[in-house]
Write a structure and sequence with these properties.
The chain is built from five helices and no strands. By secondary structure, the protein is mostly helical. Helix 2 packs across helix 3, helix 2 packs parallel to helix 4 and helix 4 runs antiparallel to helix 5.
Length: 148
């Protein structure tokens, strides 16, 4: 028995894609599997241009999934994830600060400024973690070099 949600013909598939792309009067892209770099790029696009045609929920979900998998990941993968996060945090801090600068109420400006400062603190912590990992790796190589 065929799944009622699965299109039977190419015409039905095209119709569903067109309907999905124009849902709510705003064009969207259909969900597609993405890797972590592409997810970060989509999140960055959303942060820098909220009107961009990306699927932010899918991209953020993919990054969250990848971050959860870092518990058992090798050093290089963790360092790559931290580098992606640093880019996103810098974009978020800049975006929130620019929105705070043009906010129409003091409360809104204060809330956006707090978000920007929080993203900036997280950015500094992330950059510190990258630096620490690089230093630890250099120390390990130095020790390995003297022992050999």
């Amino acid at each position: 028995m065929a799944d009622p949600n699965t299109p039977n013909t190419q015409a039905e598939l095209i119709y569903q894609l067109i309907r999905a792309q124009t849902a709510n009067g705003k064009p969207t892209l259909p969900p597609q599997p993405i890797d972590a770099d592409e997810a970060a790029a989509q999140c960055l696009a959303l942060l820098t241009d909220p009107e961009s045609r990306v699927l932010p929920a899918e991209a953020f979900r993919e990054l969250a999934r990848r971050n959860a998998a870092l518990l058992d990941a090798p050093r290089e993968e963790i360092r790559g994830a931290l580098a992606r996060q640093a880019v996103l945090l810098e974009a978020a801090a800049t975006r929130f600060m620019s929105k705070a600068a043009i906010a129409t109420t003091v409360d809104h400006a204060c809330a956006l400024t707090k978000l920007s400062l929080s993203a900036s603190r997280s950015l500094v912590a992330t950059l510190g973690a990258i630096n620490s990992m690089n230093r630890d790796h250099a120390d390990e190589e130095a020790i390995d070099g003297t022992i050999a």
